[in-house]
Amino acid sequence: MMRIRDLRKYSVHRLFMTQERCKRIEMRIRNLSSTQMEELFKIFQRRKCPYTINNNGVFLNLSWLAPEILIEIENFITFCLESKKTLDQYEAIYRDWE
């Protein structure tokens, strides 16, 4: 049985991990192309994530999202960044052949 003190520690640790996870996602989103960001926005819309739009762009509080949505976002970002890395490697090989 979990004591109140242990529960508080767990809650604080979980909150910290969620905040760190959200910061990491935010930093990785900055490396996406505009097309990839549009596809990410489609995920937000499809999953009915609450967001706001103004002249500066689309804003979304990642900490409000369910863990499974964060996983989907992380998987999409990882796919995009790994694809770009692979494509860059192939382009470098192609340039060396010229």
Helix content: over 70%
- Our Rg estimate from Cα atoms comes to 18 Å
Tell me about the biggest sheet? 2 strands, antiparallel
Low-confidence stretches: 9-13
Q: In DSSP terms, counting alpha (H) and pi (I) runs of 4 or more, how many helices?
A: 3
Strand content: 5-15%
Order of helices and strands: HHEEH
Strand arrangement in the largest pleated sheet: 1-2
Overall shape: it is elongated
Describe this structure in words.
Residues 9-13 have low confidence and may be disordered. It contains 3 helices and 2 strands. 3% of the residues are buried. The chain starts with a helix and ends with a helix. It is mainly alpha-helical and 98 residues long. Strands 1-2 form a two-stranded antiparallel ribbon.
Short description:
By secondary structure, the chain is mainly α. The protein has three helices and two strands.
Secondary-structure blueprint:
Elements: H1 4-29, H2 34-46, E1 52-54, E2 57-59, H3 67-97
Antiparallel strand pairs: 1-2
Helix pairs in contact: 1-3
Features:
98 residues; single chain; 6% strand; mainly alpha; two-stranded antiparallel sheet; 71% helix
